[in-house]
Amino acid sequence: FLTTQRTGKPSMIMAWREIHHNFFIDNYSPQEDVDNDDGSCFFRTHDNFLVYGGQGMKNDFGGHDNRHYNNTYAYVGRALGVTTTLAGHEDLFAGNKVVLTNSDVGGPICDAPATKMADNAYFTPDGKLAECGVALAENQKNRSMDLGSTVAKHPADDAVIAWAKAALGF
Questions:
Q1: How far is CA 130 from CA 96, 108, 137, 139, 153, in A?
Q2: CB count, 10 Å around CB of 112?
Q3: For residue range 17-66, what is the model confidence (pLDDT) as tens digits?
Q4: Which of the 8 DSSP states describes residue 147?
């Protein structure tokens, strides 16, 4: 489609869209709450509380330029699973709180052009996290990826509920 929304001039590149301040529960699929695929692009998904599902951020089949930040993903199987992109069109996963049901971050793109990741707080059953096939600290050191991110054991449910209230303004 042709639009003028992004720059005021006719273009095939759409404007950024925002998905924010929502409470999503993925109860039956369970795949993910926000499904960016089939060429989905230019989404800013932020300040949401997303519960259950196979993964937090999903982007495949040609999706790109998707940003997931400042979200809380509670009790998900993987933090993210994304597809390769062209340089300059990488996805972003940053500033999120992720309570995982296992100890693997999922499927970021680990080699250039890599998924941009930083400042996430991961929580796992054992307080350990694998990312790109190695421990989080090793991935941070060797790839300079997901810098500022931490991993700890699962928080109390009360803490997760407090994060939900903060994200939703309660």
A1: 17, 11, 9, 9, 14
A2: 8
A3: 999 999 999 887 667 888 887 888 999 999 999 999 889 999 888 889 99
A4: B
